[in-house]
Structures are given as structure tokens and as C-alpha cells.
């Protein structure tokens, strides 16, 4: 049986996925501003300074690879609700840590916060097919999965 609220669930997931995607990329697109602002807490030479800033986005990919298997295992074992809540808490914690790191001498806190948000990505990216399978009928699976994936793009 399918429920009318399935589209609301998909919409909420897409917003959740968008927020995680935003956490991933929002700092690297303003790398020059980040470099000027956090100047005193970044490495002194230009190459390492830029590499450190680039790791804000790259860390998502590096953390995703080892955590996707445990993320899918947790999803299979505990279901969508537990994993969405766990991922949302981890993402919020990462965002708060980044807020604490707003002082120019606290770039390390921004990076740690980014790592927490990256951990959440292992939960988010694997959700769309599971969400579609649980909430949608056979004729809607591909549409629902595509909409779920689109939230993070």
C-alpha cells in the first residue's frame, strides 16, 4: 500500500539531502575568502594553504569511501527512520562545530565540523533507492529515486 504522504517524505528527504550537499561545497566555492579570513591558522606557504582549503570539499569524498559500507549496513539493520535521524544529528553537530570555528584562528574547528558533515554523507547518499522501495509503488520507483538523488546534486 502506498500513502499520499510519500511525496512529503521524499520532499523532506530532498531538503535534508540538499542541506548536506550545501555543507559539502559551501566553503570551497569561496576559497579565496576563506584563505584571507583564516590566514593566521593556515599553513604559511601558498601550496599547503590552498591544499588545506581544498580538503574542506575533498574530505567528503575521502570519508565517504570507507563509511558507505557501514552506512548501508546500518540502513539495512535499523531502517530509514533511525538512519535519517542519526545522519541529521551528525550533520547538525558538524554545522555547529563549524559555527564555533568562526574565529580566524580556528580553522581546525571548521575542518573538524566538515568531517562530521562528511560522515553524514555516507548516510544520505545511499537513501534514495531505499526510500523509494519503502514508500513508493513499482511504477514510481525510478521517479522517486531520481528526485531523491537530485536533492544532493
Automatic annotation (TrEMBL):
This is Major facilitator superfamily (MFS) profile domain-containing protein. Coiled coil: none annotated. It is found in: Membrane. It holds the Pfam family MFS_1. It comes from Lottia gigantea. One of its GO terms (cellular component) is membrane. It is a multi-pass membrane protein. The chain crosses the membrane at residues 7-33, 53-75, 82-103, 109-131. PANTHER family: GH15861P, MAJOR FACILITATOR SUPERFAMILY PROTEIN-RELATED. One of its GO terms (molecular function) is heme binding. The keyword Cell division does not apply.
Amino acid at each position: 500500500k502506498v500513502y499520499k504522504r510519500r511525496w512529503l517524505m521524499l520532499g523532506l528527504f530532498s531538503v535534508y539531502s540538499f542541506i548536506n550537499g550545501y555543507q559539502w561545497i559551501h566553503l570551497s566555492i569561496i576559497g579565496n575568502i576563506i584563505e584571507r579570513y583564516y590566514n593566521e591558522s593556515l599553513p604559511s606557504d601558498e601550496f599547503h594553504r590552498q591544499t588545506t582549503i581544498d580538503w574542506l570539499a575533498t574530505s567528503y569524498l575521502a570519508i565517504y569511501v570507507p563509511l558507505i559500507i557501514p552506512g548501508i549496513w546500518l540502513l539495512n539493520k535499523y531502517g530509514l527512520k533511525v538512519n535519517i535521524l542519526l545522519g541529521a544529528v551528525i550533520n547538525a553537530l558538524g554545522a555547529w562545530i563549524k559555527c564555533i570555528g568562526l574565529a580566524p584562528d580556528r580553522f581546525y574547528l571548521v575542518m573538524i565540523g566538515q568531517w562530521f558533515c562528511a560522515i553524514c554523507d555516507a548516510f544520505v547518499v545511499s537513501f534514495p533507492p531505499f526510500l523509494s522501495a519503502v514508500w513508493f509503488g513499482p511504477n514510481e520507483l525510478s521517479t522517486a529515486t531520481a528526485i531523491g538523488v537530485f536533492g544532493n546534486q
